[in-house]
Amino acid sequence: xxxxxxxxxQLLFKDKVVLTFSLVPIFVGLILYYFLGAWxxxxxxxxxxxxxxxxxxxxxxxxxxxxxxxxxxxxxxxxLVNYTFVLSVSLIASPFNDLISGRIExxxxxQSTKSLPESFSLTMKRMPKVFLNEFKKLTxxxxxxxxxxxxxxxxVLAPLSIIISCLLLSASFLDYSWSRHDLAFRSCFxxxxxxxxxxxxxxGIFLLLFxxxxxxxxxxxxxxxxxxxxxxxxxVIDDGKFEKSAAQNT
Length: 250
Description:
This protein has helices spanning 2-14, 16-55, 63-92, 94-108, 116-151, 158-180, 185-194, 196-210, 215-249. The protein has nine helices and no strands. The chain is globular, with a radius of gyration of 20 Å. The longest helix has 40 residues, at 16-55.
């Protein structure tokens, strides 16, 4: 994990094509913040807090318990709005994120990379497939997000909700690599199972970063690079073990 963080930062500034296309989600995010930021972070959150205050009465439970519950639910709503905003930016910039992920994997695996015009042309050809996969992913993430948010209302199940959220965030960026290798759902599930700790901890770190307005936009392209490096590095190791085992058997 530590080496992946370091290498991802190096690749972001070393590869001009990656750096160029990393500016796309940042540019898209800044535009959305300009036009939608006030509405999302003021009106939506304000109405959500008002709903919580009306739904949970301060009478009977005591002021301390009342404000504790309101604070927890408001924080959850804030994280949900931020995460939804990040997913929206990711959807719009998904073709470019896919290009970044594919290029980073080739660098990690020591393969040759394409020029900027060739990379852009390939991205345009893959755009329909990428958007279709992105919609499927968002639908799946939306369902699990609702489940995770529902679990957070029960204190005993709150840790499970946090774990689900961390893994969901990791999966949303790992999906670029999964779809490029045409991994079936079972293979994706096994990948998460084998790397449960690294994906979970990484997802938790980025979940905290994505909860910070404006900062989350700049973190978005770095997250694409990081999870691609993490996945590709593991795959290089696994492929090396397989080749070594095959050679020994031969």
